[in-house]
Amino acid sequence: MLRNYLKIAWRNIIRNKAFSAINILGLALGMACSLLIFLWIQDELRVDNYHANGPQLYNVMEHQFYDGKIVTHGATPGLLADELKKQFPEVQYAAGITGWDARLTFTVGDKVNKESGRWVGADWFKMFSIPLLAGTPQTALAEPNNLAISRKVAETYYGSPQAAIGKSMRIDNEKDYRVSAVFDDMPEQSTDKYDFLLNWQDCLSRNSWMKEWDSNGPRTRVMLRPDANVASLQAKLKPFMKKYNTGLGPKFNIELFLQPYGDAYLYSSFENGQQSGGRIEYVRLFGIVAVFLLLIACINFMNLATARSARRAREVGVRKVVGAMRSLLVGQFVGEALMLTVLALVIALAAVFLILPGFNTLTGKHISPQPTQASFWLILLGMTLITGVVAGSYPALFLSSLNPVRVLKGSLKFGSGARLFRQGLVVFQFVLSMLLIVGTMVVYRQVNYVQTKNLGYDRENLILLSSDGEVGAKYETFKSEVLQLPGVQTVSFMDESPTGLGNNTGGVEWPGKDPNVDILFTHVGVGYDFLKALKIKVEGRDFSKEFGTDSSNYLINKAALQRIGYKNPIGQPLTMWGKPGKIVGVVDDFHFQSLHESIQPLIVRLTPNAMGKSIIIRTQPGQTKQALATLETFCKTFNPKVPFAYKFVDEEYQKLYKSETVVGSLTNYFAFLAIFISCLGLFGLSAFTAEQRTKEIGVRKALGASVRSIVGLLSQDFLKLVVLAIVIASPLAWYAMSQWLEGYAYKTELSWWMFALAGSIAIVIAFATVSFQSIKAALMNPIRSLRSE
C-alpha cells in the first residue's frame, strides 16, 4: 500500500509540474530561511556555554544606588576576587579580568607586533575550559612575570607552542615576561577574546587605583563548589561591600549579586536593578520570524493544494466507493505533503550551504552545519515533520471529507466555510508580511537616524592613536611636530574614545548639594585643545596653558549643570574626589555613549600625563589620506619600536550599532521572501477561484464584458483581503516597533506614511500577482469556458 501511495504521489507531482514546482519552491525558501535562523540561534545559545564547569561559573555584578535609581554593571574592585575566595567557602576559585582590551607591543628579536590580551587571576585556567597546548593550569599564571599566549602568537614568534615555552618576550619595550603556557586560540563562541594573558599581580603593580576598594574597573568571575547553595551565597553577598566602602559615606550603597556566566551574553541589559533583556530579544525576534516564514510557506502549500483539489475529487470519490477509510486518505495526502517537503528540504539544504558564507559575513559569525552532531539531524527531522504535517493537514482533511456520491455525480461545490478558511489564510499571510515590511522600514530609519544624528561633536576626519612608547612619554614634542605635518589641524588626547566614555563617580560635591542624594557623573581626563579637536561648543573657555590653576579646574556639560543647579556656573566651586576647583566652562551636551543611553552628567578634567590615553588627531577635510601617510612616516621615525596603528572615530561609532545594522539587513531579506512566498499562495488561490468561476467568466464574456471588467471582478475580492490584512497588521506593527524603539533614548518617530507605504507595497505586489491569473482567465475563449462545465 505504501508503495502504491508513493507511486500516486510521484505521478501527481509529475502531472502537475508547474504547481509542484511552486509548492516545492515555496517550502524550500521557507525552510532554508528558517534553517539559517535556527543555526544562528543555536550559535547564539552556545556563546560562553561550552565550559565544563559552566553551571558553577558566575559573574559578580554590582547594584549601585544613585539619585533614587539603581545602576547595574559588571565593574568591580580589583581586590574583590581574592577577598571573596578568602571570605566564602562556597567559592572554589575566583579570578579578576580586566574590562578593557590591552593592545601591547610584543618584541622577539626583529619581530615586533601589537597583540591583544588581558590580565587575569591565577585561577583562570582552573575555572574555564581553555585547552592548554603547553603548560598546566596550576603553573600557567602562578608568578607575576608569567605570560600565557595563544597558539597564533606562539606560531608567529616561535614556530610552535612547544618551542615557545620558557622563552622570554619583551612587552612595550619595558619588561621581559616568561612564556609559561600556550593555550589554543579562543573559539568563536567565547565573548572573552584575547591572544595573551598576564598575571593579575602585574596589573595591580601597574595600576595603583585597582588596589582601592572605592575604585571599580575590572570584572570578577567566581567558580562555586558543586555543593554550594547559590541562594544563601547571594544573600551574604548583598551587604558584603559595606565594610569595605566605609570612606564613601553612609548614604553610598553597593549590593553584590551573581549572574550565571553563560547568561551574561544574552541577558546583558538591566533597568533599575531588574534584568531587562539584551541579545536574547534578537534571538526571540528571529525565532518568531523563522516560525512566521515556515507558516507562510505552509499556508502557501495549503492554498495551492486546495486550488488543485477539484481535479483530485473524483480520485477521492472512487477510493471511498471501493472502501477506503478516511484515515487512509488523510495518511495518503499527508504522505504526499511529506514527500514534497523532503524534496524541498534537499533544495533548502543546498541553498543553505550556498548562502552560508554570505550569511556569516553579514552576521559576523562562523556558523557551519555539523552533520556529525545529532542535534543537526534532529532539527532537520523536526522541521520536515512539522512542515509536512502542517502543510498537508488541511488539504488532507478537506479532500478526505468530500461526499463520494456528490463527487461522482459531478455536483461538487465548495461551501462558504472552506472559502472563508482559505481567505483567512491569505489574510494571515499578508498580516505577517506587513509586519516584516513595516519592521524593515522602521529599523532602516532608526539605523539611518543614529548614523546621521548630530552627536554634538564632529566625528568626521578624527583619528585615534595609542600613546604607547615615545608618543606618550614625549607627548609635547610629538604634538608640536605632528601639528607641522600637512593636513593636520589639531592634536589632543583623552582617557578613552569619544564614542564610549565609561568612567563614572559619585564623589562630586558643591555648595548647596543635598547631602542625602548621590548623583552619578561620568568623567574623563583630557589634554589641552580637547574641545578644539572635537569641535565642541563651550560657554566660558577651554583649558589653557595660560592658566596655571586649570589642573584643578573643571569643564561640565549642560546635563551636569542641570543637576548641579548653578545659574551662573562660570567660576563657581566644584569638588571631585576631595580636590576643589572651579568650573571654567560649560560645554554643549554631546553623545559619548550609544544612543540607547540618554546623555549623562559629564565632568571634564585636565590631566598632564598622556601615557595610556587615546591621542586625537583632527585632519583637514579632504586631506585625511595625505595626513595619514605623512603621520605614518613620522611615527615610524619618532616611535620606531611601536607598530603604527590607528582608528577612525566615525568607524568606531558605527560599531556601536553593528547589531542594529545586521538586524536591518536580515529583516530586509526576510520581508522580501515573506512577500514572495505569500504571493505564491495568492497565486494559488487566484488560480483556484478562476477555475471555479470558469463558466461565469464565459457567460460574462458572451454577454459583452470587457477584459478589464473581468480582471477587476476577479481581483477585487483578493485586494479586499489584502486591505483587511493591512488594517489588522498596522496597529500590531505600530505596537511592536514602538516597543523596539523604547530601547533607544534617542529615536526616529513612527509616522503614518510608513504604514501607508507598506500597505501600498503589499497592494501593488498582490495586484500584480492576482492580475496574472485574472488576465489569463479573462482572455480565455468563452466557448471553451462554457464547454468546461
Automatic annotation (TrEMBL):
Boundaries of every MacB-like periplasmic core domain copy: 20-238, 445-629
The residue ranges crossing the membrane are 21-41, 285-307, 328-356, 376-399, 420-444, 669-690, 718-738, 750-772
**Would the keyword Chloroplast turn up in this protein's UniProt record?**
no
The ABC3 transporter permease C-terminal domain, residue ranges: 288-404, 670-782
Renumbered to this chain, the signal peptide range is: none
Chief location of this protein within or outside the cell: membrane
Could you list this entry's UniProt keywords, alphabetically sorted.
Answer: Cell membrane, Membrane, Transmembrane, Transmembrane helix
Coiled-coil intervals in this record? Answer: none
Task: Kindly name one Pfam family recorded for this protein.
Answer: MacB_PCD
Enumerate the subcellular locations listed in this protein's record, separating them with semicolons: Cell membrane
Keyword ATP-binding among UniProt keywords: no
* Membrane protein topology class: Multi-pass membrane protein
Q: Give the InterPro entries listed for this entry.
A: ABC3_permease_C, MacB_PCD, Macrolide_Exporter_MacB
Q: What is this protein called?
A: ABC transporter permease
